[in-house]
Amino acid sequence: MSHPSPEQARPKSYREPLAPLLKAKAPWLSTTLGTWSADRTPYSMEQHLFVGPRSGGDYFRVGIFAGVHGDETAGIHAAVRFLLELERNPGLARGYELYVYPLCNPSGFELGTRFSRSGRDLNREFWTGSREPEVQLLERQIRTLRFDGFVSLHADDESAGLYAFALGAQVTQHVVEPALQAAEKVLPRNCDPTIDNFTSRNGLIRQGYPGMLCAAPETRPRPFEIVFETPHHADLEKQIEANLVFLRQTLDQYQQLQAVGQDL
Ligand SMILES: [Zn+2]
After folding, report:
1. How far is the CA of 89 from the centre of ligand 1 (A)?
2. How far is the CA of 70 from the centre of ligand 1 (A)?
3. What is the helix, strand, coil percentage profile of the chain, to 5?
4. Nearest to 229 by CA among 254, 246, 252
5. How far is the CA of 58 from the centre of ligand 1 (A)?
6. Domain count for the chain
7. Is residue 1 a part of any domain in this protein?
8. pLDDT at 263
9. Which end of the chain is more exposed for a tag (fewer CB within 10 A), N or C?
10. Given this model, what pLDDT does residue 187 score?
11. Is 95 in contact with 60 (CB distance < 8 Å)?
12. Phi then psi for 31, rounded to 5 degrees?
């Protein structure tokens, strides 16, 4: 017979990892997009907007999404830490409006499950007419805000290394590859020819799958869409650090890519 440790026995609230963001003079704008309840437990969807310093050109609007799978905690902590980092170093977001959703599946987080409390994999529900409140709230934001780019943070319990899904040829080559190179200083890259049943090259999968969190189907031009995966069984701190390195590099490389494009 095993007894849960005090840490395991303590019920955890989805508000715990988000608590560092509830600061009086925070430089980001926090909005509750909506509330709902599941099994009589109340939940909410939180959005945090950080507007970086001007870069000269138009702002790029990027959505950063974490915790769509409730048990993948590294991305949640990384998204929160990234916002805290922006407070100290706003230049990381130069030229960007960053909309950060650190915990897209709060009920799954509390249960420690991939699925939400309703038993759904939310990352198979987008743009399918889903009735899941998490999906509906995010779809509404995605339609309204018309992001230039998406970065989703995930963890894969069957992968021994980092990899990414990336849509958009230029972004794949000029943004995701350098971002993976930077992140693999923290954790190894998964260079298997197939990952998660997808054809992969140097840890890059150049396709998506139905129901994933992404731009609305009618959106043209298509934004860049990146899903970054860390190996779930790796040290949590290293996964968080890999996420942070990947995020910083992605924003920096995309900004450079656009600057080059405008000179042509
Ligand atoms: Zn996931």
Report:
1. 28
2. 8
3. 35, 25, 40
4. 246
5. 32
6. 1
7. no
8. 57
9. N
10. 98
11. yes
12. -135, 135
Residue 118 to residue 108: CA distance in whole angstroms = 9
The mean pLDDT value of the chain amounts to 93
pTM to 2 decimals?
Answer: 0.94
Whole-number Å distance, alpha carbon 25 to ligand 1 midpoint, is: 32
Q: What pLDDT does residue 2 have?
A: 46
CA dihedral 109, 110, 111, 112 (to 10 degrees): 40
Ligand 1 centre to CA of 117 (Å) is 16
**Domain-located, residue 264:** no
Which CATH number covers residue 10? Answer: 3.40.630.10
Given this model, what pLDDT does residue 10 score? 56
| Cα 159 to Cα 19, 182, 190, 195, distances in angstroms | 30, 19, 7, 8
The pLDDT tens digits for 247-257 are 999 999 999 99
Q: What is the pLDDT of residue 23?
A: 84
Residues of the chain with pLDDT under 70: 1-11, 262-264
Provide the 8-state DSSP code for 227. Answer: E
Distance 115 CA to ligand 1 centre (A): 10
**Predicted pLDDT at 137:** 98
Structural domain contains residue 178: yes
Residue 228 CA, ligand 1 centroid: distance in Å: 9
The answer to whether the beta carbons of residues 246 and 179 sit under 8 Å apart is yes
In angstroms, what is the span from residue 260 Cα to ligand 1's centroid? Answer: 33
For residue 11, tell me if it sits in a domain: yes
- Which residue segment(s) compose the domain that 209 sits in? 6-259
Report how far ligand 1's centroid is from the alpha carbon of 179 (Å).
19
